[in-house]
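Newbie here. two chains, one complex. Structure please?
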Amino acid sequence: MVSFLRRVLLASVVGGLVTIVLRLRSSHEVPRREGSWRELAGPDYR
Amino acid sequence: MSTIAVIGAGAVGQRVARHLATRAEVDCLVLGSRHPARLRGFGSQLLDVDVEVVAPGKLPDADVVVLSLPSGGHAALAEKALARGAHVVSLSDSVTDVEELLALDGRAVAAERSIAIGAGFSPGYSCLLARHGAAQFDVVTEVHIARVGTAGPACQRQLHRARTGTSVDWRAGQWRRRRGGSGRELVWFPDPLGAHDCYRAALCDALLLVPAFSDVERVTARVAGTRRDRLTAMLPMLRSPHADGGPGGVRVELRGLRDGRHYTDVLGVIDHPSAAAAAVAATAAGWALADELPSGAWGLGMLDDPLPWLAELAELGVRAAAYEGAGL
């Protein structure tokens, strides 16, 4: 039983560390964008 | 005396009623609701029009019936409305509803009545944008729709179901059914919504757009979702939906040939989905009341000329935008 709990604990710790590494390494930057939005006006509706 | 029945008086239905009450050509509004008592105060706010509130049961006599109730059963109600000689405007975005409504085309033509299908934000305004943008091409080969945001609680429940449903895309001349939640794509919506990851879901835009573009090779539809949306999609809704899921947006990407060269055009709109959907449905009801719509069952992408619709919607505050300067 103790051995089983140790394995569960070890798996949780390793899983948590992997998650932390992946989250820290992944980029949260949104890709750069070119161009812009132009609202359609009078001539666009004719 | 002209009468319009609005069946389903939720977040969108009430806004549709407000729009219609301002139209001079509408004499009487019939509001259908599961809770008629809750609408007494609302009905008294609608001036210059007779308002009647009815509970579920027999479909009221009307010139136009707007179906703004939750998805499911729209075709059965549309059939009853047709039998009573009414035009129909449906806001359902359920794949089943849209397929069943499209199947009523023959009956609508025979009755010389119109069934405007998916007359909301997306589908609806998205189809108008697709049709409008297509005018700039000699041949449209691809149409890709993406949306973010929802209208009222019924719309949010429908989207929750759609996330785990089967998406319906058009590719190389045949329908492709794929698992909802797959096909992640980063989509830029008009500012200030910005970029959102969008995924496949059981959305009906392709069903309504493919008949409108004879040479189209690909039509897809995606909806924005967060990690939590995707994780909890398979579970019952964990909390009550918001009263309004806005603001939201629609992005329509068209690819095709112009003077023998390949181009990509992008159109979009940002608004509260409930407000924009109501404006589109009310506009459709107004045109139906004036007998200006073609007979049959169709989506707004099948209209010959979307400009009068877009112009009328712009006057109601729903304005489209074009993405420019990126050398697409």
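Moderator note: Chain A touches chain B at residues 30-31, 33-40, 44-46 (CB under 8 Å). The longest strand of chain A covers residues 36-39. Thread marked as resolved.
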